[in-house]
Write a structure and sequence with these properties.
homotrimer; about 475 residues; alpha/beta; TIM Barrel; uronate isomerase, domain 2, chain A; 2 domains; 3-stranded parallel beta sheet; 20 helices; about 50% helix; isomerase (chains A, B, C)
Chain lengths: ~475, ~475, ~475
């Protein structure tokens, strides 16, 4: 079945249905749709850009690494093994990539109304130029077409960076990562385009099974004595400097809560020792993470790195899936998050620093209007990140703008983050964000709440400038 | 005053105002508006269908049992007694049904903008064919017309089941209910159409004043020794089997929180003894309810019954009204509910069972996008029930779809529940749900977020198929 | 640059973009836009109306007292001192009012999409008749024009009350305020138009540094022995009586939480002594505030005053700003608020009193549909105040109606409060509320959820009547 182009990808998708707003949205969108992409926070694999090797096939590229896709399939009774997700124990899982691809095609209706289908459709029809609907009937031809194109030079990672008009992309690496792929491109033109981000959770979160080893490794990497509090902090400073050498302008912190703390030096020393002993309680681990957010803010004030806080994800909540398949397999759930009480210790110490830049993300949408926008609309150091993870979707984006703008304004936000490991979906994700922002602006204009020339200034700011400024990339 | 039909009941009510979306909504609605009604969860009285006697009058049928109506009247200073609500002490209350009906007419404006007026209007103009606006001026003629019609065969309960095109309706009975009305129709064609649901709260919730008696009665009914934990569980199993003989495919659990537990056998035995002693603390009662949700999930896995969890209602919060008029008099208020922490013990035990079906309901709308949709979008055993109680309304339905769909999709939902004891409002309630779902789908189509043929497949699924599948009725 | 009138202030601003709803909104708005303004709760300075002196200049009138404006400027790194906000230590701050005005002009884009720009634009173009866009280029001419007009009789406070069509305005004074300005107008025609409100937080909240002094002063003012619990309560009664002599029909209570309590007399006496000792704990202070809400409800039942509860603001959370610039400098943040558990003690005592009027306000929007509307839709003593503070905005108003109406109806609400100290913005704020309510009603009509004649009755009720009735002003 061949369908007309319109039904594959509506050129006016996501714009309001009423014609008055829609026309303004189209007009705004046309002025910004071709702006370069700034991707200041994400999880693509830097080896792709360092090695520039061809991707292998449709399934391995598009399905296996995408926990949005397999979480939904899993929710309908399809096993992880049958989707080729590797087992921790190395046990057998499905290896027939074409068969897995068919499973996706047979269940593609599950994604109706979700952003995954919008992203995948964009990949199919825009990136690969397919011109039929994805279905069990077309699964083979899609698989063959995509896998064949992936072997061509035009679909190598660097060529795609060009084609996607990605001006800059930041990857994310842990505190003890030696940055081999960023080292490989150091000194080349690519080093300005592919930068790293310092995400030290692995050496900050004492609840991790590998925390003690990671702190030891941190010492080895930096030559600091990380068995002492001072040495540990200096090792962090050293690693931040190394990351900056590889382009990093930001740190990132994924914590289960937004708790911060401001302990005395002796309290810090005792707490750090306890955590290193391997006998810390959950409350001590939480307090240590809390203290470290404040320490990281202090270091950001020293070295100018932008600090991102991604708080409130309860990760790997499915014990059986965690034991069999490991971390990050779609069993992550947002939790109620208290930013106000959480952030006060940090804000009391650094909240009025105009040179400090902290970007807040939330998975608890109730905090947009209740806590985050009022906080960002007052404290000089705070800005709001875009809707994150489960809320990185048309309705989620609309709720963010509707609930945050009136107290925080637009100028306390930092543009869009794709936050993805699904490289081919990056243009789709930025396009959704650009369309939704133009839609929001267009509605304000159509309702006489914003002047057209103001919307025309804001559209490129939201699509491009704020990301560069907010992450100090300009 | 006679008004034209349009002002009585807009044929395009609830559809979006803009013409592009509206036309699609109408088109979708026309394909599903005449589908039979599946009512898999509700509180109609099974004696109606067993005895098929005429209802008596407008007030007793439409007002007295409807706590949505008298809660609002009460909020404006109208006493329960004057509305004919029976007192616990048998004291005098208003018995002039016509006078009570007039009180409703004089205060009918209070319901503007609420679903009650939409449901009542549907009953007036569609079910009873009235053709004037309800007002003090027409109250008498409405009362006479309705009361007269109720004496005709066309308005007997079974005739209305036919006229309303209700294919199946489930009532809800407690653990110690002997199901006399379901027994009365056993073996007849009606037994396939009117089924029961197992709601064992009365023998599970130790905070009830009648818990100990109910557990004893449970033993008598089943011949099990319900003074022991094992006997108690076996008695539950026996009653589940009896309910299944009367058509039940589901259990239902109305708990104040979503807490679950997974205690050892000896802990369970000790806790059960404590609860039976009549000296349990509130925390022990909560823990017992929590443990019983997990036990019920285990039994569902054994016997295949679908498990519904209705969590988060704080019931009978008005102490004076409770003392004078008893339970369920409109003094129920939703409370903040933590599904994530609550459900983890149960999910750790059974969450990955693909043959287990748990349907979650909430009164805390903040959990749609933060907890429920992410949970249902991962765990194979979980599905989301429709908006419940205070949120079973046009705006409530819209928020549910807008907030749950992007993470859970449509296919982790189970269609509509009317959940009502107001029999005559059942068509109105399903019609509102169908219109709102068509509206939501139409908006997605108009905005290029869903293809028309996909919406055409989803509309009947949401209106009919998902309820049958989700409750194993097919 | 002169622009046409349309781009300065869209006559159809805030109405829905689609023409069907928009036309109904315009039609409704035209019937109520010229109704007099009832301002039953706010913070204007009564000396303005008593003395009727000219305001001095644009900056001192429009910017310095408006924490909405300087909080946003501060969030972007502009210091309080440079905005002329007085320091606690009397240290130097910017005194060049024209320079501060320029700072506002240069940063006016920050307010795009916020209600502040809508209010300011209304002041510029409607109140002062300016006909250019506000910008750095026009800042001087705006400043000169406004400052000059302020020196004319037409811009004196009383003339503005007339011009703004303000039928009645309530100011807000503390428990130990001697009401000099209200005394000054006593017996004149202005006393009926400018009334006070009793806000006793200063003598009720033991966490305040001046609590003990204030309680002592309360004794002096009333001749009661406020070192005893009984004398303290009698002093409150006396002050309520004095406030009523100056027009007050309402009390107001700004508490950090919605907690209420119902302690025994001996517990109250002990708690009061502890609080007066200066050694109370935070928990005891909270309990005292909680008990006092119940006491105040009891007094309202005695004297008929309407009781307002503004719960959930965490005030002055920026420690450094508080130390340098004092209270109420924009560092206030909403917090998660539990009305259900909080109010139960009070409701168990007085909830069913049909002569008691308690108006609830919230900064936690999640409580609209979860707690507040269900409570107000049952308890005779409860009504819902309009969206407050951060939520007093177009989107905030829409969320309030969308989330509260279906459970509470319209008739359990009390119209609009401007709640402002920015006198010149009062017409703008009421106009926004009137437009948004007409918009909400129009959408219901366009979607067949409300009849036009019902909307035509509701529009003036929401704009005018409900405020008079809800505050017993009629």
């Amino acid at each position: 079945m061949t369908t007309n182009k319109h039904s594959l990808l509506d050129p006016n998708r996501l714009f309001p249905a009423d014609s008055a707003s829609r026309e303004i949205a189209i007009q705004l969108y046309n002025t910004i749709k071709d702006r370069p992409i700034i991707s200041p926070h994400g999880h693509t694999d830097p080896s792709w850009f360092a090695n520039n090797e061809c991707f292998t096939d449709a399934t391995k590229l598009l399905l296996v690494p995408d926990h949005y896709l397999f979480r939904m399939l899993y929710s309908q009774g399809i096993s992880m093994s049958s989707l080729g997700v590797p087992r921790v124990d190395g046990g057998a899982v499905e290896t027939d990539m074409r068969k897995i691809w068919h499973c996706l095609a047979e269940n593609y209706h599950l994604f109706r109304g979700t952003p995954s289908s919008m992203w995948m459709d964009h990949v199919f029809y825009e990136v690969f130029g397919l011109n039929e609907l994805f279905s069990p009937a077309t699964a083979d031809s899609f698989y063959d077409h995509i896998s064949a194109q992936l072997q061509t030079d035009a679909y190598r990672p660097r060529a795609l960076l060009d084609r996607f008009n990605i001006e800059l992309i930041a990857t994310t690496e842990g505190a003890i990562d030696e940055l081999p792929h960023h080292r490989a491109i150091a000194g080349t033109e690519w080093a300005k385009r592919v930068i790293t981000t310092f995400r030290p959770d692995d050496a900050i979160d004492p609840s991790r099974e590998d925390f003690i080893d990671n702190v030891a490794r941190l010492g080895e990497l930096t030559g600091e004595d990380t068995t002492t509090w001072t040495g540990y902090l200096d090792a962090m400073r050293a690693r931040r400097a190394t990351f900056r050498e590889h382009g990093a302008t930001a740190t990132d912190h994924g914590h289960p809560t937004a708790a911060t703390a401001d302990l005395s030096r002796s309290e810090c020393e005792a707490l750090f020792s306890k955590c290193l002993s391997g006998h810390s309680t959950a409350a001590e681990q939480e307090l240590f993470r809390a203290q470290m957010l404040t320490e990281m803010a202090g270091m950001s004030l020293e070295d100018g790195m932008v600090m991102q806080i991604h708080a409130g994800a309860r990760r790997n909540v499915n014990q059986q899936v965690f034991e069999q398949f490991g971390r990050d397999k779609g069993a992550d759930v947002p939790s109620s998050t208290n930013y106000l009480d959480g952030l006060i210790p940090l804000l009391n110490k650094y909240g009025n620093e105009t040179k400090l830049n902290i970007i807040l993300f939330t998975l608890d949408e109730t905090t947009y209007s209740r806590e985050l926008a009022p906080l960002a609309g007052h404290f000089p150091c705070l800005k709001l990140g875009p809707p994150w993870w489960f809320h990185d979707s048309p309705e989620g984006m609309l709720r963010f703008r509707q609930q945050a703008t009136e107290s925080a304004g637009f100028y306390n936000t930092v543009g869009f983050n794709d936050d993805t490991r699904a490289f081919l979906s990056i243009p789709a994700r930025h396009d959704v964000a650009r369309r939704m922002d133009c839609r929001f602006l267009a509605t304000l204009v159509a309702e006489g709440r914003l002047r057209l020339h103001e919307a025309e200034e804001l559209a490129p700011a939201l699509a491009y400038d704020f990301a560069k400024q907010g992450y100090k990339l300009s």
